[in-house]
Amino acid sequence: MLGASGFIGSAVSAALTARPGRLRLVARRPSPVPDDAVADVEVLAADLTAPGVLADAVADADAVVHLVAHTEGGWRVSDGDTAAERVNLGLIEDLVEVCRARDGSVPPVVVFASSALIGDSDDAGGPRTAYCRQKLAAERLLAGATGQGVLRGVSLRLSSVYGHGPQAAPRVVEVMVRKAIAGEQLTMWHDGTIRRDLLHVDDATTAVLSALAHADRLAGGHWPIGTGRGEPLGKVFEEISEIVADHTGEPAVSVVTVDPPPNSYATDLVDLETDASRFQAVTGWRPQVSLRAGLRRTVEALAGSASR
């Protein structure tokens, strides 16, 4: 498990520790292991970008869950950012070569967290951001290695994942919840009609587990993962304001439109709806957490953290 202490990684790690088997949790900082863990868990704190480290991290693994991403400053990766490219693409290059060097073993499963923001990879314009281009290149490496029998790669194009967990990068729902708890107005860079497919982290976790369970049927492909519903962000922000007010007993904060900052991306102002029907047909996976329930969980967790 690579990226075990991150936002999605910590949730997937918790789910995997509850299952029998051998599990290696790899991250820059040590990953906590629940006292009631069923799995035989090894914790490895390591910098995967250092030479030779990734090979040790995945040694003898039957399956690798790759949830590592360059998140310093969020996912706003600039062209020419070699540190981001080393993490988002270079680690997949390393992983393919490590798997290629294995002699006579069954090709390992690799479940890779990609992004629904890639959109249609056959679009003449291609992905709009450096981050998405790096993720797409990584997907293609995994698909090629799968065709060569080096590994069994499954790329999950996750929609906008939200919830409560380690704050490795700013995510819009959590940022707005924290602002509302602090009594600050919620700001949009548009008129509120931009739609986002918001997937709770618990549903992202079950998608990863489903990918592991059905890897042979999914191998070689990319699979959009989301709820299939694009929620207008203006409505989402108003709901956050309402839920926070109900939780804290304070007046609801206002939701306002402001000019986008100079570092905004084109993808900030496009709708995102993710059709997961292909993945659902193969695995039977379905999202279970409604937006209202997910927002309440997030508010309750972050309000509790703020009070502590």
TrEMBL record:
SUPFAM superfamilies: NAD(P)-binding Rossmann-fold domains
One Pfam family in the UniProt entry: Epimerase
Sequence ranges assigned to domain NAD-dependent epimerase/dehydratase in this UniProt record: 2-226
Domain of life: Bacteria
InterPro entries noted in UniProt: Epimerase_deHydtase, Lipid_A_modif_metabolic_enz, NAD(P)-bd_dom_sf
Protein name per its UniProtKB record: Nucleoside-diphosphate-sugar epimerase
